[in-house]
Write a structure and sequence with these properties.
By secondary structure, the chain is α/β, with parallel strands linked by helices. It is 38% helix and 19% strand. The chain has a domain of 185 residues: CofD-like domains (Rossmann fold, 3-Layer(aba) Sandwich), CATH 3.40.50.
Length: 307
């Protein structure tokens, strides 16, 4: 069975790892978010692609959810000493990857080609593709102003309530090579338990990817990132409350209107399944606290072929 997964970082990366462990790396294609990519200290950082890459290579820091395990921070300490831009936590090992990526991008290689090479070098058999090779950036509109995603998320600690999310470049962004093919070849499409607004919508902002999902001939199953209406980490619950009017499964499913056939929700949300319409709820335990839990969740999602 071929599986395509749309994913953000952190929670999405954990889930993707579970899917790969259950389905086998070579039958899984991952389309990753690039809306939160950022240029820092002259380096091109693709946080969500990297979280997935590190998770699949077994190099990720489980606790933090992003970056590498056993990381050191000497370069950033020097940057700080020298009065440089130190608000974004780039570790020494992580910087090595950004140096290689940035050099290749400057030489004119598309992000998808660079990502494929990085994955191969790290021994990752799964195909990891950015949603687009074009510049697509998420902007967050708040009462305090409009901010590029990482400035709002990291520098401001996502403290500002979000009025709107915008994607710079969405009108012209075309799908990265391999993404439409991955969706067309899939027997099942999964949407990882990622923030719908800032992790999945930037993928769907690439019009042709949205169109491909809408016109799918195979089931698409989303996994809710909320447990008992609350985010495991990050601002997804606050954003849903404010932008969708609530944090029930129907509010999450509403972010994917016409795009999903089923939604996997946590047992803690089992009493709150009204208003899902045609979207079939699948109730299980969704917290990925360890390898067993992430594999169990992946098994449920992979087995969730709607009637
Ligand atoms: N998240 C933070 O909260 N603080 C950071 O300093 C930070 C640095 C960072 C560096 C590389 C990387 O790949 C991810 C990093 N993240 C950091 C995570 C990232 O900002 C978000 O988790 C994602 O963009 C949201 O999916």
């Amino acid at each position: 069975m071929n599986v395509a997964v749309l994913s953000g970082g952190v929670g999405g990366a954990r889930f993707v790892r579970g899917v790969v462990e259950v389905a086998g790396g070579e039958s899984v294609d991952v389309v990753g978010n690039v809306g939160d990519d950022v240029e820092v200290l002259g380096l091109h950082v693709s946080p969500d692609l990297d979280s997935i890459l590190y998770a699949l290579a077994g190099l990720n820091d489980e606790q933090r959810g992003w970056g590498r395990a056993g990381e050191t921070w000497e370069a950033l300490a020097t940057v700080r000493e020298l009065g440089g831009e130190a608000w974004f936590g780039l570790g020494d090992k992580d910087i090595g990857l950004h140096l290689v990526r940035t050099q290749a991008l400057r030489a004119g290689d598309p992000l998808s080609a660079v990502t494929t090479r990085l994955a191969a070098s790290l021994g990752v058999a799964t195909r990891l593709l950015p949603a687009t090779d074009d510049r697509l950036r998420t902007w967050i509109d708040t009462a305090a102003g409009s901010f590029p995603f990482q400035e709002w998320f990291v520098a401001r600690g996502h403290r500002d309530e979000v009025d709107a999310v915008r994607f710079e470049g969405e009108e012209t962004a075309t799908p990265a090579s391999g993404t439409l093919e991955a969706l067309a070849a899939a027997d099942l499409i999964l949407i990882a338990p990622s923030n719908p607004y800032v992790s999945v919508q930037p993928i769907l902002a690439v019009r042709a990817l949205h169109g491909a999902l809408r016109g799918r001939r195979v089931p698409c199953v989303a996994v809710s990132p909320l447990i008992g209406g609350r985010a495991v980490k990050g601002p997804a619950d606050r954003m849903l409350r404010r932008l969708a009017g609530g944090t029930s499964p129907r509010h999450v499913a509403g972010c994917y209107e016409g795009l999903v056939d089923a939604i996997v929700v946590d047992e803690a949300d089992a009493d709150d399944l009204d208003g899902l319409g045609d979207v079939r709820p699948i109730v299980t335990r969704t917290l990925m606290r360890d390898a067993d839990a992430r594999r169990r969740l992946a098994e449920v999602a992979l087995g969730a072929v709607p009637a």
